[in-house]
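User: Good morning. I'm curious how pyridoxal-5'-phosphate would be positioned relative to this chain. Could you predict the structure with it bound?
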Amino acid sequence: MLKFVKNTPFIEDTSLNDILRVCKTPFYIYSQEMINQKVNYTKKILGNNIFFSVKSNSNQAVLKLMQNLGLGADVVSIGELKRSLTAGFDPNKIIFEGVGKSKDDLLYAIQKNIRLINTESLEEIKLLEKLAKEKKKKINIGVRLNPNIDGDTINKISTGKKTDKFGIEINDINYIINLIKNSPSLNLISISCHIGSQISKIDAYKNTFAEMKKAADKFVNAGVEIKHVDLGGGFHVKYKEGDPNFEIQDVKRELDICFGKSKYDISFEPGRYLTAESGMLITSIITKKQNGGINYLIVDAGMHTLIRPAMYNAYHEIEAINNKSKNKISYAIAGPICESSDVFQKDIKLSEQSIGDILLIKNAGAYGKVMSSNYNTRELPAEILVNKDVFAVIYSPQKIEKYIDEDITPSWL
Ligand SMILES: Cc1ncc(COP(=O)(O)O)c(C=O)c1O
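Assistant: Good morning! Here's the predicted structure, ligand included:
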């Protein structure tokens, strides 16, 4: 997405300098062309049944783009459901999952007639039964199963082991079958799973597919007509040299081996794979300092803007625009937040940098802006979408005064 023309960085055919003139750092920037390519490639390999995982990047413009590209939406909260409906997704192309949906959330989803509600606990199935009965509706549901598979990823983004909080244990299938067969109000039409994010090992997919096929057959053999099998997201993205190679063709091969002869309608719900590489976080150097022999560059983006490095030691490649000096200096790149974990990289070699210089934090299109916060009472980052030689501000942050005004000081103070 990034190219240099006479030392000027371009995103598609738009000069970053033009954007910097109208938008103050830090901000996220996304390439529409890159998203188009990633989505079309994924559809080409895995078919049209792709539900974009809204949690990875939920900007309304990105959702509209995904919808235009023919994807459905996979949402994990009432807020994401409202976002997806507002962006124009057909309710019949929205799947609602999440481990903690409230009664009000479920009622809202029932009222909107979405494609299906994926239940994540036996209690939730019972609650849905009660709500559907009250509303005198027959509703479509799915169950998210926990296949007890270790995706061999960062512990904090693993979701498919039986001790993780997600999904319903495969051992409970008989109990679910019984519930559904005795339910006048629920139609169980789908089973799903999602074993975590950044899954690169093809054996993890192979084992998951095998468990899901076995589970689907078990339902069908017991007389519960499962139509859809949703195999989750989690496709691996390369953040640095040396990361494992991952190809969705390999996933497709395992899929065909396992499900090739079956009649199930297969779907996936990727997030990161579709947007991570399309985005960059643009930040500028506020100040420089040396502590204990370390050359710190303190930048205006921090863990409040992109939390992945602080939260799970995630690596993001950083590139400097100022490449003037030939000799490289070892820098630590840190944010302005009052937390020791607010460091993007501890030892990166760059040409000598000056205050005001711009750094590009790459592969930040997924789990970036969506996880940003106002910590330390700082503004959220803006977002920009580039489409060839035009760009648009697609998120403009509220002023700090607005946040302050949201607090209410009681009369006795
Ligand atoms: C239920 C569910 N589906 C899909 C995804 C998308 O995962 P990824 O962005 O790794 O593709 C997630 C994220 O963890 C998720 O929780």
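Residues 2-29+278-406 form a domain with the Lyase, Ornithine Decarboxylase; Chain A, domain 1 fold (CATH 2.40.37.10). The first strand starts at residue 2 and ends at 5.
Let me know if you'd like a different ligand tried.
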